[in-house]
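Can you give me the bound-state structure? Components:
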Amino acid sequence: MKVRAGALALLVSGAVSAAGDPGATEDLSGVPMQSATVAGDRGQSAGATHLEAARASEQAGAHNDALVAAQALPGIARPPLGSGALILWGAAPRETLLLVDGMPVPALTHANGASAVLPDDLVSGLTLAPASPDPRYGRSPGGVLSVDTHLDAAHALRLAMSPLDAQASAHTTLGPAQVALAGRRSLLEYLLTPALSSTARELFPLPHSWDAQLLASLPLGAHETLALTILASSDAQRRTLDASDSALSRGDSRTLRFGRVGLRYTNLHDDGRETRVLVHAGDDFSGTSVFAGGATSAQRSWSQSAGLRASQRSPLGSSLSLTLGAELLAARAHLQRNGALTTPSREGDLFAFGQTPGASAASDDWTVAEVDAALFASLPFTLGALALDPGLRLVAHASDTSLLAPHPLATADVGSSQLEWFAEPRLSASWRLAPRARLLGSAGLQHQPADPADRSALFGAPTLTSSTTWNTALGLHLRAHDHLALEATAYLRALSDLATRSASAAPAPAQLLTQDGTGRAFGLQLVASLAGVADWTAELTALLSRSERVDHPGAGARPFDFDAPVSVQAQASWVPGPWTLGARLRVSSGYPRTEVIGATFDSRTGAYDPLFGAHNGERLPVFVDLSLRAARTLAWSGGKLSIFLEAQNVLGRPNADEFAYNRDWSQRVALSGLPPLALLGLEAFL
Amino acid sequence: MTSSLRLISLLACARLACALLSCTLLACAPDLSPPATLVDHPRVLAVLAEPPEARPGDRAVFRVLLATPTGEESASSTAWSFCAQPPPLGSNAPVDPACAQDQPPIATGAAASLALPSNGCSRFGPVAASDHPRAQDADPTGGYFQPVRVSLADQLAFAFERLRCPLAQASLAASQEFERRYTSNTNPRLLSLDAAPTAPAGEPSTVPAGTSVTLTVRWTPDSAEAFPLFDPPTQTFTDVTEELTTSWYASAGAFDAALTADSGAQSSNRWTAPAAPGTVYVWAVVRDSRGGTASLSRTLTVPEPP
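Here's the bound-state model for the whole set.
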């Protein structure tokens, strides 16, 4: 019997040379593994972590889903309930590049954050590189979280079920090719809807989600492989207050659907060279709406994308190698938006859940086309105890918007085009101070193109250009003992040219957004991990972080909407024989909110509008969650069955994930997150 | 045990877990009382303007409807003023936050006759000015509104007088057609507020504790006016008829809905009497989609239990 939990005890590996193993797959090559812990292996990039799927899915609170466990990796703040958004080192979710087999994807978990868009058996591992200095990747000022898939033909069929969802995967071989087909459907809406009161259904968005995957791998020779990855995912959820009265109901809804197709060619030459080519294409739809009292503001986006990334790594000696590559990305987004100018809200907007969208009826329909052409190179080398990996990414970013100004009367639509050039130097370094101590550092420049949603002539500014981010990080890794590793990583991120609301009371047309915004995020990431001691593994992580934004020159700094100053997590696993027992305690600051200090009556609508206090001047209460997990694997000839029982929020804390107000904004209640909850699941391999 | 039996038994366990989950979720629904319909303290229910639509510089009379648990009161301490600036375009607020701050009144009293500022269409409408290069967006009915600040005691309300402004993004021909076809809005003309089956309007109604009556507010058929709605991209007009909605309020008891739609020149709502005996005041505030407002009220009696 192969008990995956047993691997936990076998993960301690010796330190490898700082410039060493480039990794078995494309997405791991930039962050070679250095050590092992419960949560994951640390990489050469300061603060980076690699996590094997088999270990990730067995963490308490992960619901047997490796990608859900990624939300608890060091450096990531607790995602808001029902979002699954990754807040990495104080960066906005959009600033973190999510990759599956090298393909950019908009999400790795479904909207509820409790289930992944890939089944566990198709995931081999995931790598988190905050503020990644890897020159292969652009559009990632926050970092890169990459997921590698694999095909495991040990079992032909996998069936999994929990109250969250039902999953099925089938593996087979077709001649020399391995093929896997998988799918998942959320179950909560079927199981719980009949049992819940209408009020509970309104406030606890039950996920409506599904995903499907087709993976294939064809060996072309001894060292050559062609791999196909097809992904599809769909999510929809809705939160409502006062839903019993349709005329007064207020809330929001979100929809996200995406599909991806990727084809990877890999050639690991005999002489040590590595050639990798990835071609991918995608189709996305996202929709957000805010409604109150019959008024609705909505934004919808349809986008198609295609990309090509090719690279070759050539060893130039025993301590020197060169990677050269090119990337081409093309995307076209068609967006529609109607309703008030500021809802759905963007980062930095003053908005409270349940607020009336506003009476204005603006409407826009625009298209943004973008092409990125990039060349990248890296030249890792070692000089004794010092390993350096300098890199450079040269980017030409061309974009075109369909409307430069709001629909003018009786004239043709006039769009705008712009071309930006960037040279993005990157550097990572490792200095072995002692046999058990290393100093890691990284620095890099990143640019992030303006969000197409911000480039409306009516709601934003079509001429927005890219923002700039400088990332620096310095970390100290100590292997204090054969089983104990300690890490401390400090980081500083400086952002400029951020799109922000115009400070003018009367901005010119098509200039509702300006690029006056700046920001900074700094913090300290601490990790202590214990592994391989009598079937025990344990890890303590802490992220002390501050993320601020300055909307306009001269304005004071305000907390970033996702600023979480303190995130502490302790987790432990014990593997006595076929059992796996685990626990995870998470404590984190609440996200900022702007206090409602009063309200005014709107005689035109009969509704009340809030008066706000200091921007992001208060916070949601501290979040505390203790999750416990017990799992048992039973094996028989030709199959095995894993059973897990998870208890979440064992402490029964009414963790608040949002504030909700009554209609005149005079009373406030906290919308609690998950109550004490037991999840029983099973996973069968046949 | 076969694998299929294992699956079945564990599926049953999963359903049990879901049932437990549902029980815990039920206990989490927050209490956001009191209901929007309850008048348990002095509340501004509406600010009535006559006429509800006027040109900049024209005069309009504004009156505040102040409801209390003991009936309507004259809000003689009301201070009136105009907002001078629109809200920042980056704000979701309906008025400029500065207008929510204290400012000197231009009139006081329960009602005020005010001359609208002459620059309303450039401040709050489609006319671009040098210091307001971006015109305001119309509401779904094509309307632009002059905010009127209404301050009394600890309450702050805003009335919105619809402005007759030039048509935005329109050709000369379209503008001329609009002026020919468009009729300024008028307030709904309410006829009665009946309580069925107990008594017609104007007569005291007795509703036993805990029982329900249907309240119906009626208005003249022409209260739902037709108006042309302009579509700039096509330079065409569509004839649209106003929709009337009714907001319901009571000093005690509970309505089925806080807001009801029109149903053939009337709108009905069911009201359930409270357990405590006494006199209950109910109000129906009818609004049309272009900003017109009218109201009626009546009293209901909840008798002592026999």
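A couple of observations. Chain B is about 10% helix and 40% strand. The mean pLDDT of chain B is 85.
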